């Protein structure tokens, strides 16, 4: 969400925002302890509470697409938990349909390919996750391509959600749970062993375990790495501490992402700039990072071929 949009929506709906969300700079965050995570979640929830009508959702999704196009992206997969919006949008199914309609409209208006991953919340009961998984499968023909698991990975065991992920996989959706961010390599291993993940949200802490790195590389499991987010939340102290080079040289595919630009203050292109500036990635290596994100996506074959051709053209130019 753009900061200006947040302020507009807060004024529109009479929402009082925390001071940390009204300043010119992104909030100072550190989520590696309980108090820090609670503050991060409180700010996230405050921003989300400003989305109260279908028009708000449409604006949010359209602007996200516009920002990605501006950064040179040709494909965007957004992850959403529709239960967060259900109380204000008429229920779970209406909320999901509003989101899917917004994605479809934004894609047509901007020319950006877009799809949706439905995410369960590991802080809620696993039965809720099963409900979401069934709903995601039901709407697979409307642009849902995957099923995720979000929130603090230090809470809620991955295996508690194994049935939900089985439902999603059996319905043809890719499994993309979060792991290996606030928790260590074991949380990545749990995503593989218990949820049969085909993609990992974050996954950077796998760099601490060479055997796990090899496993990810051998299976070509893409890690959705968000360097600026990792630093902002205190997972790593400095951009150069994020183990991009370790993952890359181990052969682990990565899809760089911005996570939440509102709270972390940077978007997609900035992640590639970080890789160049702080990790010495060359143009050829940056191009390979971009290719990895395309290959790890749920984009149709013809879209992948077009995007890969564009990357090759950028490198050749």
From TrEMBL:
Matching SUPFAM superfamilies: Metallo-dependent hydrolases
MF term (GO), any: deaminase activity
Documented EC number(s): 3.5.4.4
InterPro entries on file: A/AMP_deam_AS, A_deaminase_dom, Ado/ade_deaminase, Metal_Hydrolase
Cofactor: Zn(2+)
Enzyme class: hydrolase
Signal peptide interval: none
Pfam families linked to this entry: A_deaminase
GO biological process: purine ribonucleoside monophosphate biosynthetic process
Domain Adenosine deaminase, residue spans: 1-314
Keywords: Hydrolase, Metal-binding, Zinc
UniProt similarity note: Belongs to the metallo-dependent hydrolases superfamily. Adenosine and AMP deaminases family.
Protein name: Adenosine deaminase
Gene source species: Streptomyces candidus
């Amino acid at each position: 969400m753009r900061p200006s949009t947040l302020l507009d929506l807060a004024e529109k709906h009479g929402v009082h925002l925390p001071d940390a969300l009204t300043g010119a700079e992104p909030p100072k965050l550190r989520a590696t302890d309980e108090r820090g995570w609670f503050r991060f979640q409180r700010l996230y929830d405050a921003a989300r509470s400003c989305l109260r009508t279908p028009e708000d959702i449409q604006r949010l999704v359209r602007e996200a697409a516009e920002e990605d196009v501006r950064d040179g992206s040709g494909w965007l997969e957004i992850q959403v938990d529709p239960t967060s919006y259900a109380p204000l949008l008429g229920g779970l199914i209406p909320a999901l349909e509003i989101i899917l309609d917004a994605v479809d409209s934004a894609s047509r208006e901007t020319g950006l390919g877009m799809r949706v991953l439905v995410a369960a919340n590991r802080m809620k009961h696993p039965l809720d996750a099963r409900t979401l998984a069934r709903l995601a499968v039901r709407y697979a023909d409307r642009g849902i391509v995957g099923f995720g698991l979000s929130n603090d990975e230090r809470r809620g065991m991955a295996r508690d959600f194994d049935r939900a992920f089985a439902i999603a996989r059996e319905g043809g959706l890719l499994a993309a749970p979060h792991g290996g961010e606030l928790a260590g390599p074991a949380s990545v291993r749990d995503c593989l062993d218990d949820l049969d993940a085909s993609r990992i949200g974050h996954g950077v802490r796998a760099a601490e375990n060479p055997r796990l790195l090899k496993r990810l590389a051998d299976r070509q499991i893409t890690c959705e790495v968000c360097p600026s987010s990792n630093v902002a939340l205190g997972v790593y102290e400095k951009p150069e501490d994020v183990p991009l080079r370790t993952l890359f040289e181990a052969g682990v595919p990565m899809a760089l992402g911005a996570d939440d630009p509102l709270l972390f203050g940077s978007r997609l292109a900035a992640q590639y700039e970080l890789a160049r500036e702080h990790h010495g990635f060359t143009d050829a290596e940056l191009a390979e990072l971009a290719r990895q994100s395309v290959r790890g996506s749920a984009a149709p074959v013809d879209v992948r071929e077009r995007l890969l051709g564009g990357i090759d053209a950028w490198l050749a130019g």
